[in-house]
Specification:
With about 100 residues, the chain is an alpha+beta fold. The chain has one domain. The chain is about 45% helix and about 20% strand. Helix 1 crosses helix 3. The protein starts with 6 loop residues before the first helix and ends in a 5-residue tail after the last helix.
């Protein structure tokens, strides 16, 4: 497995990881990884989007991950497994909220 990497490389890995695990719950879920501005070089904010819905919601803080933590642990199966479960739980939350807002034709 791999670990380390510069900020942009780790952000790309995180985006792909979150996308892959979110889509295991709902193929329409998209990853939103905040990496610019004050976060650059320091941390990432993670949300999932399903249509107009976000998890965590916009009025709440995103899932916060420090750059060093992600870079150091992205090669750890245990750490990745725990993060995957957190992402999948957010995707399930979105999927449940998304089905309640639909109307039949």
């Amino acid at each position: 497995m791999f670990s380390g990497g510069d900020y942009e490389e780790v952000a790309r890995w995180l985006r792909n990881f979150v996308t892959a695990h979110g889509k295991r719950e709902n193929l329409r879920v998209e990853a939103v990884v905040e990496a610019g501005g004050a976060r650059e070089g320091e941390s990432y904010g993670v949300r999932l989007r399903l249509g107009e819905l976000l998890a965590p919601p916009a009025e709440e803080p995103p899932l916060e991950l420090a750059y060093g933590e992600v870079a150091r642990n992205r090669g750890s199966l245990a750490w990745c497994g725990a993060l995957a479960e957190r992402v999948r739980a957010l995707a399930r939350q979105l999927s449940t909220a998304g089905t309640g807002s639909r109307r039949s034709a």
